[in-house]
Design goal:
The protein has 264 residues and is of the alpha/beta class. It has nine helices and six strands. α5 packs across α7 and α8 packs across α9. The longest helix is centred in the C-terminal third of the chain and has 16 residues. The chain is globular and about 50 Å long.
C-alpha cells in the first residue's frame, strides 16, 4: 500500500446489527488529473483528486458548515443544525485519539477535517458525498460514517451517535474512533506497520478472533485496523463487548501494535 491513499476509495462502516456485515467499497471514478493551473477544488470524494493544501493559503470548506471547532489541529465542521454538545463530543474524541502521539501533525498538514452530520442528515446530504448516490450501488440509508478524501482527508459521523442516542444510524456507538482510524491508517502509519496490520489481520481470521462473513473487521485489512482502533479506545462497548480489554485478550499482537502507534 502507498501510505497517503485509502485503498478502495470510500471506506464505509454500515449499521444494521452489532456484527455489522461487510459492505462493498466502491472505486473512485477514473479521472485524469488536470494541470495545477486548471485545478479547482470541488470538495467531492468522486473527483478522483487529492489536493495537498498550501500552508500559505486559507483552507476552503463548503459554506454550509457554519459551525467549526478545532481539536488537535484538525477542523471539525457541521451545519447550523448540529448541536454544540455533538461538536464538543467530536472534539473530545479527536483529542483522546491523539493524546499520547503526534499523528495529528501529519493529518493537520494534509488538511484533514471531520464533518458532524445533523440528526436529520444522511451521508448523501453532505456536499462532499452527494455524488456517491450516482457513483455506487450502495444503500447509504444505513451508513454510520465514511472516511475518504475530498480535496483533503475527510471523515463524517452523525451527531446522534456521538451523543450516544440509540436512534443514531450506528445505534448510539461513537463511530468517530473507527473513522479517524481510517485516516490514521491511510495517511500516517509506516509501511512496516501496515505490513504488520495485514499480517495480524490474516492471523486474526485464521485463529477465529473474527468470523469471516459475519464480523465487519474481516472485510479487509483497512476495516480490521479501523475496528481495532474502535475497540482500543473504548473502555466499554455496545458492540458485543469488544472493548480494549477484549482486544488485549483476544488479539494481543494487534493490541500491542496499536499501543505503539497511538500510545496508551
Amino acid at each position: 500500500m502507498v501510505v497517503g491513499a485509502l485503498a478502495g476509495g470510500v471506506l464505509l462502516f454500515q449499521a444494521g446489527s452489532s456484527e455489522r456485515p461487510p459492505a462493498a467499497s466502491p472505486e473512485p471514478a477514473a479521472t485524469n488529473e488536470p494541470a495545477a493551473s486548471a485545478y479547482k477544488p470541488e470538495a467531492s470524494v468522486c473527483q478522483g483528486l487529492l489536493h495537498r493544501p498550501d500552508a500559505k493559503s486559507e483552507r476552503k470548506l463548503p459554506d454550509v458548515y457554519t459551525k467549526r471547532v478545532e481539536a488537535a489541529g484538525i477542523t471539525i465542521a457541521g451545519n447550523q443544525d448540529v448541536s454544540d454538545a455533538a461538536m464538543a463530543q467530536a472534539a473530545k474524541t479527536v483529542e483522546r485519539i491523539f493524546k499520547n502521539n503526534d499523528l495529528e501533525q501529519r493529518l493537520a498538514e494534509e488538511g484533514a477535517y471531520i464533518i458532524v452530520a445533523a440528526s436529520g442528515q444522511g451521508v448523501l446530504d453532505l456536499p462532499e458525498f452527494a455524488c456517491l448516490g450516482q457513483q455506487t450501488r450502495i444503500d447509504f440509508d444505513h451508513v454510520c460514517g465514511v472516511a475518504d478524501r475530498a480535496d483533503y482527508p475527510v471523515a463524517t459521523v452523525n451527531e446522534l451517535d456521538l451523543l450516544g442516542d440509540k436512534k443514531g444510524p450506528c445505534t448510539g456507538l461513537n463511530i468517530l474512533y473507527h473513522e479517524v482510524g481510517h485516516l490514521v491508517q491511510g495517511w500516517t502509519i509506516s509501511p512496516a506497520d501496515y505490513f504488520d496490520v495485514r499480517r495480524f489481520y490474516q492471523q486474526a481470521i485464521d485463529s477465529g478472533v473474527y468470523r469471516r462473513g459475519a464480523d465487519y473487521a474481516t472485510t479487509n485489512a483497512n476495516e480490521y485496523f479501523a475496528e481495532s482502533t474502535q475497540s482500543y479506545f473504548l473502555s466499554q462497548s455496545s458492540n458485543g463487548g469488544r472493548d480494549r480489554a477484549w482486544l488485549q485478550r483476544n488479539d494481543p499482537d494487534m493490541f500491542s501494535l496499536l499501543a505503539s502507534i497511538y500510545g496508551d
